[in-house]
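On clarity, I found the account of how folds are encoded harder to follow than it need be. What matters is that the chain and its backbone geometry are given together, residue for residue. For the editor and my fellow referees, an illustration may be useful. For illustration, here is how one protein appears when written out as sequence plus structure tokens:

___
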Amino acid sequence: MNLPLIEEQQYKTQDYITNSLPKAEYTDCTFTNCNFENSDLSNIIFSECDFIDCNFSNANVAHTTLDNVTFKDCKILGVLFQNCNTFLLSFKFINCTLNLSSFYQLKINHTTFTNCIMHQVDFTETEAKHVAFNDCDLHQSIFDRTNIEHSDFISGYNFNINPNLNQIKHASFSKENISGLLESFNIKIKD
């Protein structure tokens, strides 16, 4: 499919609930305070784009390309990232809420999550090597057969990761959050 190329555009306070974002290849574009809730973003290409203070809740990202995309201060509830185009998939998240989203079976190596709320996020069978979870709340997020080797959980919290079910070699944790690795063993930790 040949998509029209749109470069270096600024989109502000646009509502794409009723009028969908046109199918195109967006390069070096910035979307600020835009509403994509329940929108169909399938088969769109975003390359080197920034999304600032946008709402992506329940957006359809089937076959969507996210190449070096930054999400900042965004609400991203229930988004199934595993449906994205996996070729060139790379993104980072800053101050975002990603509750109920899913990265099931994706390769998200070297992704950075900074100061994100990530309740009940699905990382089942995800390859998440060298991922940074900086100051992230991972309450009830699912790590099952997940490869988190070399990942950084030093300032992450509220996670429950069973070392028997996940690959955690060389991952980093702090003394304060090490209980998140032991919870599955049903043991008590005293100060």
